[in-house]
Amino acid sequence: MALTAWVLYDFTAEPGNNELTVREGETLTVLDRNVGGGWVEAQNSRRQTGLVPEDYLQVGHFGSSEGGGSHVSNTTEQWDSRGHTSTRQATVEDDDGEWDDWDDQSVSSYRGSCHVDEDGGPSGRSAYGSSVKIPRNKFPFSKGPNPEVFLLAKPPANSRDRLPVYIGEVGPVWLYPTSPLDCVIADPRKESKLYGLKSFIEYQITPSTTNRPVNHRYKHFDWLYERLLEKFGSALPIPSLPDKQVTGRFEEDFIRMRMERLQAWMSRMCRHPVVSQSDVFQLFLTYRDEKEWKMGKRTAEKDETVGPMIFSMIEPEAAELDATHVEHRCEQYSQFTKLMDDGVRELLNVGHTHWKRCTGPLPKEYERIGRAFRNLSTVFNTSKYPGEETLTDALTATGTTYEEIAQIMKQQPNNDLHFLLETNSEYKSLLGCFPDIISVHKAAVEKVKEADRLVSAGKIDHSDRKSMNHRISSMSYSLQAEMNHFHSNRIYDYNRVMQLYLERQVEFYQQIADKLRTALSQFTTL
Amino acid sequence: MALTAWVLYDFTAEPGNNELTVREGETLTVLDRNVGGGWVEAQNSRRQTGLVPEDYLQVGHFGSSEGGGSHVSNTTEQWDSRGHTSTRQATVEDDDGEWDDWDDQSVSSYRGSCHVDEDGGPSGRSAYGSSVKIPRNKFPFSKGPNPEVFLLAKPPANSRDRLPVYIGEVGPVWLYPTSPLDCVIADPRKESKLYGLKSFIEYQITPSTTNRPVNHRYKHFDWLYERLLEKFGSALPIPSLPDKQVTGRFEEDFIRMRMERLQAWMSRMCRHPVVSQSDVFQLFLTYRDEKEWKMGKRTAEKDETVGPMIFSMIEPEAAELDATHVEHRCEQYSQFTKLMDDGVRELLNVGHTHWKRCTGPLPKEYERIGRAFRNLSTVFNTSKYPGEETLTDALTATGTTYEEIAQIMKQQPNNDLHFLLETNSEYKSLLGCFPDIISVHKAAVEKVKEADRLVSAGKIDHSDRKSMNHRISSMSYSLQAEMNHFHSNRIYDYNRVMQLYLERQVEFYQQIADKLRTALSQFTTL
């Protein structure tokens, strides 16, 4: 006898993908629970059948208090190597609507990633703004173990991972590679698995170093993101990936936009001297076969130098800083990133409003103006008055010109505002990472401040106290190097995007002026 | 003991003009009923005193059925010289808030003009559109006496008033004067009367012929309009004057706008070969003293060649046309003016919408964009990062540029759309006159069609029938001459206004492009 299932969340089927649209609260008959890939084949009350994500369903146990069925079964409590308790809830969205992968290890890891949308659903979100994920407080230092666990921890033996900080012209800086890394994402292809039942998009990524393309699905990018966040998130801003989306994910516009955003994300990661040289990032870009990829993934997932432990890798070439200095710097960066976040949000807000106006009411109005001129011209033409056509020809041309302007207007935000908003969205995402970084810093500063008391209480000894001072100084050098990296990139990015925006705006207004000048020339001088 | 009065309509006092704001249904104490000029001095329940228009009040008789007091006493039934019954209701608005004039005769005549606003009130109307009065069916031929009264009437003896119609290159045309007439309206001055209690605006009008200025108040223009409408309204479109307005009528913008519209109206009348050469129009422009003005007014008001009688003055030089031809022409013009009216309304509609957007939300958005850039620049400036100011200087300049563009945008409709809308409003007003002209025509055509039956019935004889044929032919020549005048003016006006509009639009967009180009040049090339 078939099992029944209760729908926990709305799910909209991707057309032509064997899926079944279901609504929260609906009851289904489970036809096949073992279809694989996190999918269940089910039938609704209207006898329509199709695949539904397992996590969207509660199978068998209706209203029972024993734990919420398969949905809650994906909620796992983990006590990681650093002693952090992190409750991870299974995502209700997935890149390709699948929860499977080449190896099991990555599944559980991937499932662990939580990207609940701010606006509560995959559809109805605007092109920008809400598409940026709110970074979770992944490493809430204050909620985790006492900072002394990190401040006093011995640095891992592997010196290959050491992160030197030099003093450059602008102050503390990371070690920048001699030849900068970049990559090109191209050729998105729809691929199938589960004997054609499920489809996904595969991208080709070609790094500038090897010039040898590797293939990755969105979920692999997401895996990389999770690894980078885990490893560097306490010290470096790791911006979130472009949103997942269940519906419309095979539409051309969506694929193009996602690829553009993945490209921006990858380029930003490539530009980062610490991230780009990390093993996990190199693995992602340069693995040679499935075996190497699998092995590398396992190694990356076992990496213990994650969270605040990353600071133990920092090796500043400069003199030790005291806690007061560290605190002051931290406050300064906190202030800057907060203010910039406000500024970026403001620009995004007005940008979205402007986008809507420029693609909606404004071109409609220009179309109406153009049509009104053309209509009047048509009426005038019926007069049969001698010399009428000198007016009506010009009037029709003017009408057509305004209709053309309407078309240009409608497309314009894609040509200029788009890049301004994309760059600011990236920065919003980057800036959203700073509160976590700052809080790790502040907790460490507080701990170091009470070091004397800890010594008196016999909890730490004098050499521990010295270690703590050394570690907090390293943290500050790390933060300063990162802020200098951030500033230099920011100045470059905003210079570039503002120039592009203004160039395109100039072209736009010049084009309108030229078109209207041509229309004007059609009129006979009085 | 003082009388009491009941307020019939809301009235808003003109500040500094000794008036009292009252609301419908309010009860007032009448302090002085003999203040003159149609005003009553009254006190409200809050013991505030001031002048209120007599017509807004019902004095003494509350709720009595005997006729509504002074308000209804201004409603007069007139049986005019042409046997038309026209019930005229006193206006509740006046140019200067006054109902008086230099001589009594003009008062009753002026009071007889009714301009009830379409939107029901003097305030809250938009700059265009609703400001155009709906022409009343002043000469509803079908409701008046049988068309035969006109068709068979003997032409008045005064041959000086004859209106010849020639056959020109474009068909029937009026006799155009050798030197075209125009006038300049300037120097609006606030004048007082009633010992300074009441104020009004006086304009100086200088005709191109005499170059000697004459002074007129709005109400004199309105008197002229009434005379022209009465005399020529059956044959020529007499566009209505710019709206009367009770509140805000001494504000600079209002005075400027009214003067501009009076100028446009006068120039249009000056351009008309029949109107410009009429006695009443010449009187208005060239009277030498008050005595001549008064005398001329009396003569004009006694003129009997008014309404459809004007057709008896038409003297075509060409062969008589038959009723079928006349009907066909009439149908053709009816169609054209109706279609053009639709076209003009459409353009006015989208123009008003566009005006609102260009002066409201759009510049606000540009201001916000500009401010967002400047704010971001301010934040960036706090970074103290070397070389920051190369970005922030340019970013601030860009912000300021967008704020300047917002200001230009806000003013722009006054520079371009304004003239387009004014011209179209004028044409809307002109086109609104055609249904009456067409209906006079159609009624006459119908009458001529049944001429044979009238002859059989012994109501008219064969010579009468011949007269009717002659008269309807003259009517058609008049209509054709008028339409040719209309077309030639229309082609001129639309050519002129479209060129002006496009010139200003080109300047506008070019200015924006240039400003943005300057902002762009502030950025350092990457």
Automatic annotation (TrEMBL), chains A, B:
Residue ranges constituting the PX domain according to the UniProt record: 181-291
Keywords from the named record: Cytoplasmic vesicle, Membrane, Protein transport, SH3 domain, Transport
Topology in membrane: Peripheral membrane protein
Keyword Glycosyltransferase listed: no
Superkingdom, natural source: Eukaryota
Acidic residues bias: start-end ranges: 92-104
One annotated GO biological process: endocytosis
Domain annotation SH3: ranges: 1-62
GO (cellular component) term, any one: cytoplasmic vesicle membrane
Region (Disordered): 60-104, 110-129
List of residues binding a 1,2-diacyl-sn-glycero-3-phospho-(1D-myo-inositol-4,5-bisphosphate): R217, K219, R258
GO molecular function terms attached to this record: phosphatidylinositol binding
Major subcellular site: membrane
Annotated Polar residues bias: 74-90
Name under which the protein is recorded: Sorting nexin 9
Source organism per UniProt: Channa striata
Family: Belongs to the sorting nexin family.
Keyword Mitochondrion belongs to the record: no
Origin organism lineage: Eukaryota, Metazoa, Chordata, Craniata, Vertebrata
Cellular localisation: Cytoplasmic vesicle membrane
InterPro entries linked: AH/BAR_dom_sf, PX_dom, PX_dom_sf, SH3-like_dom_sf, SH3_domain, Snx9_fam, Sorting_nexin_WASP-bd-dom
